[in-house]
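Annotators were shown the component list below and the corresponding predicted structure, then asked to write short factual statements about the assembly.
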Amino acid sequence: MQTVYDILDWPGTKWLFVVLVLVMPLASLLTWAERRQSAMMQDRLGPNRANIGPIKLKGILHFVADAVKMIFKEDFIPANVHKGLFTLAPILALAPVLIAFCIIPFGPTIYPHAYTSTLDTYMLATEPTNAMFADSIRMQMFQVDFGLIFYFAVLTLANYGGTIAGWASYNKWALLGGLRSSSQMMSYEVAMGLALMGAFLVTGSLEPGFIASHGASDSMSGSNPLNWLWLWQPVGFLLFFTAAIAETKRAPFDIPEGEPEIIGYFVEYSGMRWGIFFLAEFIEIVFISSVIATVFFGGWQVPFLDADGFRIGGYIDQVNNISVGGVFTPLPHWLVTTLQFMAFGVKVILLCWFQLLVRWTLPRFRADQLMALGWKLLLPLSLANIMVTALIKLLFMGGT
Amino acid sequence: MSASHHDDAHDAHDAPAGLKVLSVSTVHPRVRTVQVSRPEAQDTTFLAATAKGLGVTLKHFARNFFLPGKSKAARTQAGAPPAEKFFFGKLDRNDIETVQYPEEKVTYPERFRGLHRLTLRADGAVRCVACMCCPTVCPAHCITIIPAETDDKGIEKKPAVFEIDELRCVVCGLCVEACPCDAIRMDTGEHAKPVEDRANAIETRETMMARGVRSIATQGGEGPNWRTGGPAATKKPGEH
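Structure shown to annotators:
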C-alpha cells in the first residue's frame, strides 16, 4: 500500500525537490550573482535596480527580467540549419546535468517516526528493523555502488550538446566552436576521472552517499572535518577542481564559447534556446559544487554534528551505548536533519561563489596552453596522485 | 660561402640581447654556447600567480561586500578621503566607484557649459536687448531672435522670441562670449533634457528665463565686475 512516506521516498519526488528547491533557484540566482560579484571584485556595484514596484532586494529580480526577456525574444532559426538537431542540442546540453543530480546525497536519511526525538544511533545500528526506523527517506535519488562513474558517464553526454549545436548551426565558426568544445571536454574528462581515483582508494567506495556519511577513515566520525577528503586528498581536490572548472566551459577555460568575441558553438542561437545553454552552464556550476562538497567536504555533514547531536571529542561506546568523553549536546532528529540540509546548501553556495571568483580573476588560456595543462600537468599529476595514495594505503593503512 | 664575410662582419654587434654567452667556438665565432633563461617554475605552473590573483580579487570583493558606504565619488564630494587599508587599517568604507546616477550626481567643473539661461533685470524683465550678436556668432545657427521695441528709450529693444534649438547647439559657448550685456549664460550645470519629440528640444525665452538669475552688471560693460560684484550676483554652477 502506498503511504505518504512511499511517495516522499519515490525518486521522482526527490528529483522535483532537488531541482525546484536547490538547483533551479541557485542556478537562476547565479546569473545575477555572477554579475553582482564580478562588479564588486572590480569596485563596481553591478545590476541592482530590477524591481517589482517598491520591492528591489538589491537587484535579485534581475534574473526574472532576464528570463522574461529571453522568453519573449524572437525565436530565430537561421536558414539551412538542421532543424531537428538544432532544437535537440540545447536539451542535450541541459538534460544530462539534471540527470546527474540523482547521485548527489543532498541530505541525511530521515526517519519520520523518530522525527521529534533524539535519534538512538545505537538502536539504529543493532535493530535497524525496529518500527521506529521504518519508512526511512533517503535523500538521494539513485543510490548505486557505481555512483560517481555514473556521473562521469552521464555528464559526458552533455558534450554532445555543444558539438551538435555547432554542427547543426550550418556556420563554420559554430562548428569550430563545437570542435573546441569536444576536444576540451575529452581532454579534461580523463584528468577529472583520474583525480577522483585517489578519493575512491581512500574511502574504498564510489558511492557519494557513503563517502559523505563515512568520510575517509572509520576511526573518526563522518562529521569530523578532519575526516573529510580535502585533508586526505589535497592534490586530488586541486586537480579535480581544476578539471571540473574546465568541464563547465567557463573562464579561464572558456575557449569553446569565448563569449566576448569568438562566441563558439551557440553563435546561431538566440532567445530561450541560447538561454538554455546558459542555464545548463550555471546548473553545471551548481552540480560541480555539489560533487566537490559531497566528495571533499563531507556533503551534508555539519562539523561535529552526529546523528544524535553535537559531539566534540569523545565517541560512542558501542558496547554500553553511552557517549564517552568530550562535549556532547543531544539534539532532536528534526533539528539535526534541518541543520544538515542547510549545511549542504551553504557548502554548495560557497563553492559556487568560489567558482565565480576564479572565473572573474583568471584570464583565458590559449588553446595550446589549455591542452598542455590538461595532458602534461593534470594527467601526470593525477596518475602520480593515484600511485602515491595507493602506496600509502598499502603500506600504512593495511592495504584493504 | 660567399656571404660569410658579410655575416662575420656583423658578429661583433650581433650578440643576442639577454643571452649570456658562456664560450665562443674557436673554429667559427658564430658558434657559441649561451645560457638560456627559462621561465621560473611558478610562471609555468600558474599556481602561485593564480593564488596571488585570487587574493587580490578576494580582497576587493570582501571590502566592497562587507564594508558599508556610499560610492567613492559621493564620498570624495563630501570631502572624506577614501580608505586605504582594509585588514589592519581603517575598517570604514568600501571602494565602489559607481555613481548611482539619478540619486547621486557628480559635481561638474565650474566652467562646465550646460543649458542656457537668460539673466534678468532688477524688475524681472529679460536682460537681453536683442542686439543679434549671439545668432550672428553662433556656428550652428541654433539661436532665433525676433526683436521687439520696448518703452524704455535707454534700452530700445527686447527679444519677442528667443529660441535655442538644443539639438543643433554645439555647446561652444560663443554666444556667452559674444553677449555685451551678460544676458545669456551657460552656467546652469544642467544637461539638455531627453525628449521624445524634436519640438520639445527647443528652449524658449520663458524656459530660459525661468532658469535665469538677476545680473547686476552695468549695461555696456561699465561698473563693477559682475563676477565679483555682489552677494546676490551669481549662483554657483549646479545650483538652480
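Statements collected:
1. The beta strands of chain B are 20-24, 32-35, 117-118, 143-149, 157-165, 184-185, 202-203.
2. The first helix of chain B runs from residue 4 to 11.
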